[in-house]
Design brief:
Strand content: 15-25%
Oligomer: single chain
Number of strands: 22
Shape: globular
CATH architecture of the largest domain: 3-Layer(aba) Sandwich
Structural class: alpha/beta
Low-confidence stretches: none
Distance between the termini: 32 Å
CATH topology of the largest domain: Rossmann fold
Mean pLDDT: 92
Strand order of the largest sheet: 2-1-14-13-15-16-17-18
Largest sheet: 8 strands, mixed
CATH superfamily of the largest domain: ANL, N-terminal domain
Length: about 450
């Protein structure tokens, strides 16, 4: 485990391995296995770009070698702030395969959040667009590099068919090197030997300040989350998942999301802008079976559906991040889209509860996911009474990265994560079947 991270105690780690929750495979090794199993099957689609599993794995392999050639070393952290394009998926897996640790920042984050993540992780590199939606990401990265001497490599993404406004390779006065992301390519070399207990990547947890909490997710725990998420969502080999940037990033990535779909042998369809018109057209064209969206855009999807006449007969499951769609009932969505609607309450720290929209109660997914519902003093509340939801389990982290003060407030001494979510217990004290409402 990386210094600054809180490991699972040995007794819990051994329990999760014995139960089969942790299976000892890194995420990029799982992708390599999928390339062998599903080689010619389509893995990733955006616009006219269609990558098979074999092609995706080959790109990952060559980009990983290219990152090493450009000077990145195993164990270093690299900020990744890309829009919803194939390069996002390739870059995440390539950095992991190179032995580095991606720090995943939503593309909407700006200097305060990104600079904080860079400083805390001592990021050696940054991967992002030169300019996106009018914002100059390269200038932001240059400013961060000028302040923090450990950030010495910036890799800039340009959409297909566009040229960088900054030209090619460059080095600035602070000694930071700039490379087009498209140039990060080299013949593959010897695979690294790593443990699935290691940190795979960092997620940024939402906060009310400009200093997001850094959440270290290991290969073992995230593979567990995406696997049980896929099982609960009924997502399997041959299914098609629509990854829309209008959904929350953690939902789109791994609930089961992009990673869960690839691990199951499905196809990921990436929407570029995530508008209702684009998403419904993609569902029809690509025969999408699973999709995720934020509650705030559900009404837009309904409005577009009524005017577009798109054929959505392939769609089996629509996931809604958060508690409910604003001003839209689950029954209305299910009737309009003729599919199941599933509420998803997910947090980067590892809380994941998937609830059928027709049911008022939900429960954590893994059998070894434990919950408590407590009052302000940390005492268990009577059944049916409101209290804060505490969770621990094989995909719930034990602490933030380099944040002992935050850990003291957010994690109990026995390892439970204090979610801050108020719920009620509706299932008695049978730990294997406890369900909650109010999420």
């Amino acid at each position: 485990m990386l210094d600054g991270c809180t490991p699972w105690p040995d007794v819990f780690a051994e329990r999760y391995r014995a139960a089969g929750h942790w299976r000892g495979h890194t995420l990029d090794d799982l992708l390599r296995g999928c390339a062998l199993q599903y080689g010619p099957r389509t893995a990733l689609v955006q616009g006219d770009i269609r990558l098979t599993y074999a092609q995706l794995n080959r790109r990952v392999e060559r980009m990983a070698a290219g990152f090493r050639l450009r000077g990145l070393r195993p164990g270093q952290r690299v900020l990744v702030q890309l829009p919803n394009v194939p390069e996002l998926v390739v870059t995440i897996f390539a950095l992991m395969r190179a032995g580095t640790i991606p720090v995943l920042c939503p593309v909407t984050h700006r200097a305060p959040q990104v600079a904080h993540a860079a400083r805390v992780t001592e990021a050696a590199g940054y991967v992002g667009p030169s300019v996106h939606d009018g914002f100059d990401h390269r200038a932001m990265a240059a400013d961060i590099a000028a302040r923090w001497p450990f950030l010495r490599r910036v890799f800039t993404y340009e959409p297909v068919g566009t040229a960088s406004p900054y030209g090619g390779l460059a080095t600035d006065a602070s000694g930071c090197h700039y490379f087009p992301l498209g140039s990060v390519d080299a013949p593959s070399d010897r695979p690294l030997v790593r443990s699935a207990e290691e940190v795979a990547f960092f997620l940024l947890a939402a906060d009310t300040t400009d200093t997001p909490r850094l959440v270290p997710r290991t290969h073992d725990d995230y593979a567990c989350q995406t696997r049980v998420g896929a099982e609960t969502a009924g997502l399997a080999e041959g299914d098609v998942y629509l990854a829309a940037p209008s959904a929350e990033f953690s939902l789109m990535l791994g609930c089961p999301g992009i990673i869960g779909t690839l691990m199951a042998g499905g196809t990921v369809v990436q929407a570029a802008a995530g508008t209702a018109a684009e998403c419904l057209a993609l569902i029809e064209r690509e025969r999408v079976t699973h999709a995720s969206l934020a509650p705030a855009v559900a009404r837009h999807w309904l409005r577009e559906l009524s005017s577009s006449g798109a054929d959505l007969g392939s769609l089996r499951l629509l996931q809604l991040g958060g508690a409910s769609a604003e001003g839209v009932t689950a029954e209305e969505l299910e009737a309009a889209f003729a599919c199941r609607v599933q509420r998803v309450h997910a947090m980067p720290e590892g809380l994941l509860i998937l609830t059928p929209a027709s049911e008022p109660h939900g429960r954590p997914l893994a059998p070894d996911a434990e919950i408590r519902i407590v009052d302000a003093e940390g005492e268990d509340v009577p059944e049916g009474e409101p209290g804060e939801l505490l969770v621990r389990g094989p995909y719930t982290v034990r602490g933030y990265y380099r944040a002992p003060d935050l850990d003291a407030r957010s994690f109990a001494d026995d390892g439970y994560f204090r979610t801050g979510v108020v719920v009620r217990d509706h299932s008695g004290r049978d730990e294997g079947h406890r369900s909650v409402s109010g999420i």
